[in-house]
Design brief:
Keywords: Chaperone, Cytoplasm, Nickel insertion, Signal. InterPro entries: UreD. The chain is globular, with a radius of gyration of 19 Å. Strand 14 and strand 15 form a beta hairpin. With 283 residues, it is mainly beta. It is built from two helices and 19 strands. Helices cover 9% and strands 48% of the residues. The N terminus and C terminus are likely disordered.
Length: 283
């Protein structure tokens, strides 16, 4: 049985269930994908509250597609958002967002938090491809993304951060990304930018004056046999192997459009991402 997106009445009730207080909004979304036993993927759980509204869209082949739709502005100061997505063995899931996420200052004091937890079982595949996160002036947001993969799981993860809107100084943005494969950490990195960040964040060793930064993590079992080789991918992007069946692309650019182009070209250079399709030799 395939679960479908909540209807209008359920969505209204879900929005009312989000906790709003002087300390900000508390909201969470859960997505669980399973192999339907017929060569496709079913969404056993698809639920959200308040500003986090997951919606199923038309899939492709065996892959289910979900969009995260922002039902409210945010995250604002003091908000606490959380997304938990789980992919079972043999299931394939692609998650995107309907628009960019805009971090804004709020009436509540303190930083906002956006916590993402992604879990993929053996033989499962997840594409986590949200739109950009924009850090507006005077905002303060901490994003934590934790990925736990089984040894034969597959992943394409894209993160993009834009520091400020056009002509605007950015807020403070702290982003931590952790990827574990079979319980072993292959990536654990944190970047802090904007007012109050450690000195040097805008210097030549980090962003070098750029206002858009992103990373692409690709995990494929075949990388254990044929690791990618470190190399530049055009101006502003570099590809490096990780300590496992994974590769990392890091990129900086003057704006969001050029950053997306760099990451799209990097993913194309890595070749087909679907199980059973051959990947190019990047040694």
């Amino acid at each position: 049985m395939t679960a479908v997106a909540p209807n209008a009445a359920a969505a209204t009730a879900s929005a009312a269930a989000a906790t709003a207080s002087a300390a900000g909004v508390r909201a969470a979304a859960r997505i669980v994908a399973r192999d339907d036993g017929r060569g496709g993927t079913s969404l056993r759980v698809l639920e959200g509250e308040g500003p986090l509204a997951p919606r199923r869209t038309r899939g492709s082949g065996a892959e289910a597609h979900v969009l995260l739709v922002g039902a409210m502005s945010g995250p604002l100061g003091g908000d606490r958002f959380a997304v938990d997505a789980r992919v079972g063995s043999g299931a394939r899931l692609r998650i995107g967002s309907a628009a960019a996420t805009l971090a804004l200052p709020g009436q509540a004091p303190g930083e906002a938090r956006y916590d993402v937890r992604l879990t993929v079982a053996d033989g499962g595949e997840l594409h986590w491809l949200p739109e950009q996160l924009i850090s507006a002036r005077a905002s303060d947001l901490r994003v934590t993304t934790r990925v736990d993969l089984a040894p034969t799981a597959r992943l394409v993860l894209r993160e993009e951060q834009v520091l400020g809107r056009a002509g605007e100084t950015p807020g403070r943005l702290t982003s931590r990304l952790t990827v574990r494969i079979g319980g072993r950490a292959v990536l654990d990195q944190e970047l802090c930018c904007g007012p109050g960040a450690p000195a040097g964040w805008d210097g030549p060793a980090v962003l070098a004056g750029h206002r858009a930064v992103g990373q692409l993590v690709v995990v494929r079992p075949e990388f254990a046999r044929t690791p990618v080789a470190a190399r530049m991918l055009g101006e502003g992007a570099v590809l490096v192997p990780l300590a496992g069946p994974a590769a990392l692309v890091s990129a900086v650019a003057p704006d969001a459009l050029l950053l997306r182009r760099l990451l799209d070209e990097a993913l194309a250079a890595l070749g087909p991402a679907t199980a059973g399709e051959p990947a190019p030799d990047l040694r």
